């Protein structure tokens, strides 16, 4: 039986050695913003920081930021201004291979699709 992460006796998720999916639902909104790099104007939430740190997935932030700066994404932003401030990213993993997609709307068609030849990301799927 696993402990409820909302239980006050449960350790802070940052104190856990590995990514624990049971803690992910508590990250709605943020209490702390993280800056991607001093020369790039991208911020991410404490939930993304937890995911990257505990899931050893800073590479995932790198891939998303790379796509955000790409000419292809800039073209999509010109065509659909919603993408300038909000995107829906999804990573699926099967047999150590991944697929990263980005949509302007949760139910819409992907504007970015990237296949990842190898990943050790510990979850089968994550929405960002």
Give the key terms.
two-stranded antiparallel ribbon, alpha+beta, 128 residues
Descriptive overview:
This protein has 128 residues and is an alpha+beta fold. The chain has one domain. The protein has helices at 46-54, 58-69, 71-79, and strands spanning 33-37, 40-45, 88-94, 97-103, 110-116, 125-127. The strands form two sheets. A four-stranded antiparallel beta sheet has the order 5-4-3-6, with helices on one face. A two-stranded antiparallel sheet has the order 1-2. Helix 1 crosses helix 2. It is globular. The two termini are 28 Å apart.
Major sheet summary line: 4 strands, antiparallel
Spatial shape: globular
Structurally, how many domains make up the residues? 1
What's the total helix number? 3
- Rg over CA atoms, rounded to whole Å, is 16 Å
Mean pLDDT over all positions: 86
- Beta-strand proportion: 25-35%
Strand order of the largest sheet: 5-4-3-6
Structural class: alpha+beta
Catalogue the unreliable spans. Answer: 1-8
The total of beta strands comes to 6
* Secondary-structure element pattern, one letter each: EEHHHEEEE
Fraction in helix:
10-25%
How far apart the termini lie comes to 28 Å
């Amino acid at each position: 039986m696993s402990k409820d992460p909302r239980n006050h006796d449960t350790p802070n998720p940052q104190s856990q050695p590995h990514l624990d999916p049971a803690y992910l639902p508590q990250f709605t909104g943020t209490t702390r913003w993280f800056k991607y790099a001093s020369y790039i104007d991208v911020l991410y939430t404490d939930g993304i920081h937890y995911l990257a740190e505990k899931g050893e997935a800073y590479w995932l932030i790198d891939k998303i930021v790379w796509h955000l700066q790409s000419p292809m994404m800039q073209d999509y932003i010109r065509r659909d201004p919603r993408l300038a401030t909000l995107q829906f990213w999804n990573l699926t993993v099967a047999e150590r291979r991944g697929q990263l997609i980005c949509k302007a709307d949760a139910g819409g068609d992907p504007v970015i699709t990237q296949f990842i030849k190898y990943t050790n990301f510990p979850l089968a799927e994550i929405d960002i």
